[in-house]
Amino acid sequence: MTLPVLDTVRPRRAGRLQHERLRLWLRLLRASRGMEAELRERLRVTYDLTLPQFDVLAAVARREDGLTMTVLSRYLMVSNGNVTGIVDRLAKDGWLDRVEIPGDRRVKLVRLTDRGASDFAAMAAVHERLVDELLGGFGKTETAGLIGQLDRLVAKLKKRGDNERLRRKPGGKI
How would DSSP label each residue in 122-163? Predict the structure, then answer.
C-alpha cells in the first residue's frame, strides 16, 4: 500500500487549533481507555467475564427473539469466528442457548437463557452504576452537551467513511 505524500519539502508547524484538536483526540483516547480498563476489571473480578463477553450478552439481551451469529457479528463489528468462541463459552456457562430456526437447520438463533437474562440484568445494573460513577463529575447540561458534540463527530466520521467507500474502486484501490 502506498501512502499519500503530504509534505515532503519540510514539515509545517501545526496551527494552534489544529494542535488543540490533536490534544483533544489524545484526551478522548485516554478517557476511553481508562474507562474501559475500569469496566474490564470490574467485570473480571465480579463475574469472571470479559468485556467482549459482556458485549455479546448485551447485544443478545436487546432482542428477546434472539440473533443469528451473522447478525450478532455484524452488530459487534467482529468476525463470525470471534463471536463463535465467545458464544461457546457463554453457552457452556449457562447464559446463552442456541435455538434452531424452524425450516432452516443451518442457522441457529442465539438467545439468553432464563439464568442469562437474570444474571445479565444484574450485570447491566452494576455496569450502569460504574459508568455513572466514572462520569459523575458531569452534570445534566454538560452530559447532554458532550453527547451532542460526540454525536456530531460520529456523524462526520460516518459520512467520511461512506464517502471513502463510494470513491473506492472494486479491488479496494482509490
Answer: HHHHHHHHHHHHHTTTS-HHHHHHHHHHHHHHHHHHHHHHHH
DSSP state of 9: S
Residue 6 has pLDDT above 70, yes or no: no
Q: What are the boundaries of each domain within the chain?
A: 26-135, 138-166
Assigned CATH for 26-135: 1.10.10.10
> At residue 106, what are phi and psi to the nearest 5 degrees?
-75, -30
Report the SS3 class of residue 27.
helix
Phi, psi at 98, each rounded to 5°:
-105, 125
Across the chain, mean pLDDT equals 88
Sign of dihedral through CA atoms 163, 164, 167, 169? negative
Mean pLDDT of 96-112: 89
Q: What is the pTM of this model?
A: 0.77
